[in-house]
Amino acid sequence: MSNNNIIDTSLAYGIKTVRVESDTKQITDFNRWSITGVIGTADGADADKYPLNTPVLLYGEAAEVEALGSAGMLSVYAKHAFKAKKKPTLFVRVEKGADDAATAVNIVGDAAAGTGLHAMINAQSVTGFSPRTIIAPKLSGDMQVVQALSEAADRLGAHAYVDINENNDSAAITAAGNDAMNHKRINPVWPPVIIDSEEVPKSIIDSLLDDEIQFHESTSNRPINIDGLAFPVDFFEGDSTCTANKLLQVGITTAIHSGSQYVSHGMRNSYQPSGDDDKQDKYRHAVRIDDALQFLQTQAVKPLQARKLNRANVDNALINVENVINGMVSRDELPGGRVWLDDEYNSAASWADNQIVFSTDYAIHGYGETIYVTSQRNTVYLSNYVNQILGASDE
Questions:
Q1: What count of other Cβ atoms lies within 10 Å of the Cβ of residue 214?
Q2: Which of 393, 278, 380 is closest to 22 using CA atoms?
């Protein structure tokens, strides 16, 4: 966004964080921030506990899981998500259609009726929680669902894992090249995984891995508890033509066998930046860090909302934002950053119009995706070695 577009004249009330592209320029509740939202079918669910198109917050208690029934992707998620630990999760149940295409329509939903993914967008007003990871296991590969997921993720400041439903890597790569996939909040995954002889959508496994790490960490090169892959994925270090790295190049997260266990492979999303676009936006962790920082900054300036723009209140907000940035730097979540009041955007006129702009800038760490180790032969070492032997024999 250009610097000239910071002031939004259509914003009547509230806090808006804006990321500005420029070369020059502890308030936390992460339990509420890092919630997974799952949308899908549960044919045998208790309709009173899981009404259609209604966000429901559950914690994985046995009674909650039992009420889902045994059919549908919501029950598949619950089976794998809650066997290790209980955690707050948002569910939205939709009606199963006559076929997958009809079910996909129900997942997309209708904005006016508040159904499907629109119910997930409205979860905050119903449950007090809002998802930061969204999955629609198995059916998310439908391109109309992908488009709806990207729109929902934009609204929520979330990201979505998207299952690519293809039976070979070439077809998966082609699917990832669809225009609907070219979005920094869309993370395609392939292939499905095998757990206890059953095929499980990989989006479930990746969302669970997300739960285990901090927002500023990469999910790549981490152990995942699976028995196998539905389709083979070969990997050779430094080989750009192997299947795993061809998938990585188009932003598909996959899994490889490290020799002793399966590990996740790939830290990119499917976004393909061009021109002056920020190249870091093609990495999942960079988008997550942006989202976390904006969330924390919003919380930091909330005490100023509907309060006088006087020195004490403004200074307090500045200190709050500064504490957020300094806290992230001290925890090595960011390498550095700052906050200030820029007179380009702040004036007597703008304050009289009840608008104030806090400017921040920051950097995001680089992460080791491609690592080079150079090596060359050097006969000096051999010469020194031989000379030492010859010198010893002369004594």
A1: 12
A2: 278
10 Å Cβ neighbour count for 374? 4
Domain boundaries, the chain: 30-265
Secondary element (H or E) of residue 325: helix 311-330
Other residues' Cβ atoms within 10 Å of the Cβ of residue 9: 7
pLDDT at 41: 97
Closest CA to 232 of 205, 206, 260, 194: 194
Tokens of 144: 């109309």
Q: Read off the pTM.
A: 0.87
Tell me: cis bond preceding 232? Omega within 30 of 0 counts: no
Query: Which residue, 154, 143, 87, 86, is CA-closest to 120?
Result: 154
Q: What is the DSSP letter of 252?
A: -
69 burial class (0-12, 13-18, 19+ CB within 10 angstroms)? middle
Percentage of the chain lying above the pLDDT 70 cut: 91
Of all residues in the chain, what percent carry a pLDDT higher than 90?
83
Counting other chains too, the contacts that 210-216 makes at CB distance below 8 Å and 24 or more residues apart are 210/34, 210/36, 210/133, 211/34, 211/36, 211/87, 214/333, 215/30, 215/33, 215/34, 215/285, 215/288, 215/289, 215/291, 215/292, 215/333, 216/285, 216/288, 216/289, 216/292, 216/328, 216/333, 216/334, 216/365
The number of residues making up the chain comes to: 395
- In whole angstroms, what is the distance from residue 182 CA to residue 190 CA? 16
Across the strands, what pairs with 36? 89, 133
Q: What is the dihedral angle through the alpha carbons of 218, 277, 30, 120, rounded to the nearest 10 degrees? A: -110
- Report the chain's mean pLDDT, rounded to a whole number: 91
Query: How many separate helices (H) and strands (E) can be counted in the chain?
Result: 14, 13
The amino acid at 65: V
Query: Which pLDDT tens digit goes with each residue over 83-133?
Result: 877 889 999 999 999 999 999 999 999 999 999 999 999 999 999 999 999
